[in-house]
Amino acid sequence: MSFDAVAQQPKLLYLLQGVAAFAAVVSLILLALHRGPVRRRAAALILLAPALLLLTIGLLLPGLRTLALSFTGTGGDTWVGLDNYGWMITDHRALVALRNTLVWVVLVPAASTAVGLLYAAAVARSRFRTFALSLVLMPMAISFVGAGVVWKFVYAYRPAEAGQIGLLNRLVVVFGGEPRQWLVESPWNVLFLIVAMVWTQAGFAAVLLTAAIRAVPPELTEAALLDGASPGQVLRRITLPSIRPTLLVVLLAQAIGTFKAFDIVRTMTGGQFDTGVLAHAMYDQAFRYGETGRGAALAVLLFLLVTPFVAHQLRARRRAG
Amino acid sequence: MNGVRERLASRAFTAVAVGIAVLWTTPTLGLLISSFRPEEEIKTTGWWTVLGTPQLTLDNYGEVLSGGGNGSGRLAEHFVNSVVITVPSVLFPLVLAFFAAYALAWIDFRGRDALVVAIFALQVVPLQMALVPLLKLFSQGWLFLPALHLTGPARFGQVWFAHTVLALPFAVFLLHNVLAGLPRDVIDAARVDGASHGTLLLRIMLPLARPALAGFAVIQFVWVWNDLLVALTLSGGTAETAPMTVRLASLAGTYGNEWQRLTAGAFVAAFVPLLVLFSLRKHFARGLLAGSVKG
C-alpha cells in the first residue's frame, strides 16, 4: 500500500486557504454593499469587478495574445507573418486533422441527435422516463477519458487464433469474419472514434428533446392518433415541427462541443494513424512539440470555425426560450 | 384496424428505445464486469464468459488505488487532487457570476447593455484560445503581472483560476437570464422597504435563483471533475496535483493493454460523477436544459 495520508495534508490545507480567502473577498463585497446607501454605479462596480477582472486577465487578453502568437515562430518572439497558416494548409497532419474535424462535426451532431430523438420519442410519455434517461446519460458522467477507455476495450484486438476480449471483434468472429485492428486502419478508424463521441452525446440530446416533446400539448398528438395517423406520422408531422427550435439548439450545441473534442482522440489513439482532430493537433503543437506559433494558429482556426455556431446558438436559445 | 397498426408502431418505438438502451449500457457493463475479474482472465477471455468462470476479485481496485508498482494508478492520491481542484472551481464562478448577473439584471447604470453583450460574446472564445497565454502568464508573467512560478499545491491555484474564468461567461449568461426574469414588483416592494443590495441578493435573489444555481453547480462539477485539457496543461501532471483524468489518460497511453488497471481505474474516476448523476438527476437535467454553450 502506497497511499500516504500525511502527504495529502498540504493539499487539503491549500484548499481550505483558497476557500477561506475567497470567503473573505465575498464578505468584503457584501459588507461594502451593506454599509448604508451605496450609489448605483458604485454598487454595480463592486459586484462586477471580480468577474470583469478575471475575464480580462484570463480570457480576453489571452485570446488576443493567442491571435498575436499565431503570427510568431517557435519561441513566440520572432514575427513570421502568415507562415503558421501556410504550414496549416500544407502539412499532412494538420490537413488530416482539419478533414477529420469536419467529418466529426457533420456526423456527431447528426447521429447523436437522431439517436436522442428516437429515444426521446419513445420514452417521453413513459412511466420509466427518468430511469431510461439516466441510462443514456451515464456516458456523460463517465467522462470523455472514461468513454475512451470503454470503447478502446470494445475495439480491443487479439490475433485470430487467440480468444477475443473485445466485444466488436468477438461479434465479428461469431459471424465468421476475421478480427481487425479497428483503431489502426485508416480512414475507417475515424468512424470508430466518432462512435465513442456519439455515445457520450446522445444522452444530452435525449434529455433536451424529451423535455421539448413533453411540452407539445398531448391533445394535439392524441387527436392525430384518433384520426388514424400512425405514431411515426405523428412524430414526423406534429412532434418534429413543434420541437424544431430545440432540435436546432441541440444540433448546434453538439457541433460546438464536437469542434473542441480532444479527450477521446487523445485517450484512444493519441492522434496516431491519421485520427487527429484540430483541438488535439493544437495541443500537440503547442504543448508537446513546443511550436507555440503553430498551436496558436490552430486555436485561431478553431475559434473562427466555432464562432458562427456559437453566435447562432445564442440567437436560437433566445427563440427556444 | 387502426388500433392494431398503432399498437404495432408504438411497439416498434419501444423496441428501438430498448435497443438503444442496451447498446448504450453494454460497453459500460462489460468494463464494470471486467474490473472485477483477475488479470489473467481479463487478458485471455471475454467478459461475457464470466458466468462460465465466475472468479471475481477486488485486487484491481486495490492495485489501481494504492498499489506500490510503477504502473499502479495511485488513484487514491489523484482522487484527493480531483476533490481539491473541483470544489473551488465550482464555488468561485458560481458566486462571482451570481453577483455579476445581479448587477447586470437589476442595477441601472450607463453602459450596462454593452457590458451584457460583451460578456455573453466571450462565450465564443474556446478554451484552446486561452491555454498557451495562460500557461505563459503563470510561468513568465505578462505586462504588469509578475511571474508566479507556482510549485507544489500552489499549482492548484492555476487550475482554479482557469476553470473559474472559463465558466464565467456562460454562468453569467445563464444566471442573468434567470434573474432578469424575476417579477419586478417583488424586487420593487423590497426596495421600497429599504432593502440594500446585499439584502436583495441574499434574501430575495438567492432563494428564487436556487434551482438555476444548483443546476449550474452540478453541471460545472461534472465538467471540472471530468476535464482533461485544463488539468493537463496547468496542473503539472504529477501525483502531487494532477486529477484522476490525467492519470487515467496516461495509464491508457503507457499501459494501454493493462486492462485490469484501466477497467478499475475508469470506475474509480467515474464513481463520484455517477453518484451525482443518479442522486441529483433533477438538477443535472435542469442544468443541461438551461444551457449548452461551454468553454
TrEMBL record, chain A:
<feature type="transmembrane region" description="Helical">
    <location>
        <begin position="45"/>
        <end position="64"/>
    </location>
</feature>
<feature type="transmembrane region" description="Helical">
    <location>
        <begin position="12"/>
        <end position="33"/>
    </location>
</feature>
<protein>
    <submittedName>
        <fullName>ABC transporter permease</fullName>
    </submittedName>
</protein>
<feature type="domain" description="ABC transmembrane type-1">
    <location>
        <begin position="98"/>
        <end position="315"/>
    </location>
</feature>
<feature type="transmembrane region" description="Helical">
    <location>
        <begin position="131"/>
        <end position="151"/>
    </location>
</feature>
<dbReference type="InterPro" id="IPR051393">
    <property type="entry name" value="ABC_transporter_permease"/>
</dbReference>
<feature type="transmembrane region" description="Helical">
    <location>
        <begin position="292"/>
        <end position="311"/>
    </location>
</feature>
<keyword id="KW-0812">Transmembrane</keyword>
<feature type="transmembrane region" description="Helical">
    <location>
        <begin position="102"/>
        <end position="124"/>
    </location>
</feature>
<keyword id="KW-0472">Membrane</keyword>
<dbReference type="InterPro" id="IPR000515">
    <property type="entry name" value="MetI-like"/>
</dbReference>
<dbReference type="InterPro" id="IPR035906">
    <property type="entry name" value="MetI-like_sf"/>
</dbReference>
<comment type="similarity">
    <text>Belongs to the binding-protein-dependent transport system permease family.</text>
</comment>
<dbReference type="Pfam" id="PF00528">
    <property type="entry name" value="BPD_transp_1"/>
</dbReference>
<feature type="transmembrane region" description="Helical">
    <location>
        <begin position="190"/>
        <end position="213"/>
    </location>
</feature>
<feature type="transmembrane region" description="Helical">
    <location>
        <begin position="246"/>
        <end position="265"/>
    </location>
</feature>
<keyword id="KW-1133">Transmembrane helix</keyword>
<keyword id="KW-1003">Cell membrane</keyword>
<keyword id="KW-0813">Transport</keyword>
Automatic annotation (TrEMBL), chain B:
<keyword id="KW-1003">Cell membrane</keyword>
<feature type="transmembrane region" description="Helical">
    <location>
        <begin position="12"/>
        <end position="33"/>
    </location>
</feature>
<feature type="transmembrane region" description="Helical">
    <location>
        <begin position="200"/>
        <end position="225"/>
    </location>
</feature>
<dbReference type="Pfam" id="PF00528">
    <property type="entry name" value="BPD_transp_1"/>
</dbReference>
<dbReference type="InterPro" id="IPR035906">
    <property type="entry name" value="MetI-like_sf"/>
</dbReference>
<feature type="transmembrane region" description="Helical">
    <location>
        <begin position="159"/>
        <end position="179"/>
    </location>
</feature>
<feature type="transmembrane region" description="Helical">
    <location>
        <begin position="262"/>
        <end position="280"/>
    </location>
</feature>
<feature type="transmembrane region" description="Helical">
    <location>
        <begin position="83"/>
        <end position="107"/>
    </location>
</feature>
<keyword id="KW-0813">Transport</keyword>
<protein>
    <submittedName>
        <fullName>Sugar ABC transporter permease</fullName>
    </submittedName>
</protein>
<feature type="domain" description="ABC transmembrane type-1">
    <location>
        <begin position="79"/>
        <end position="280"/>
    </location>
</feature>
<keyword id="KW-1133">Transmembrane helix</keyword>
<dbReference type="InterPro" id="IPR000515">
    <property type="entry name" value="MetI-like"/>
</dbReference>
<comment type="similarity">
    <text>Belongs to the binding-protein-dependent transport system permease family.</text>
</comment>
<keyword id="KW-0812">Transmembrane</keyword>
<feature type="transmembrane region" description="Helical">
    <location>
        <begin position="114"/>
        <end position="139"/>
    </location>
</feature>
<keyword id="KW-0472">Membrane</keyword>
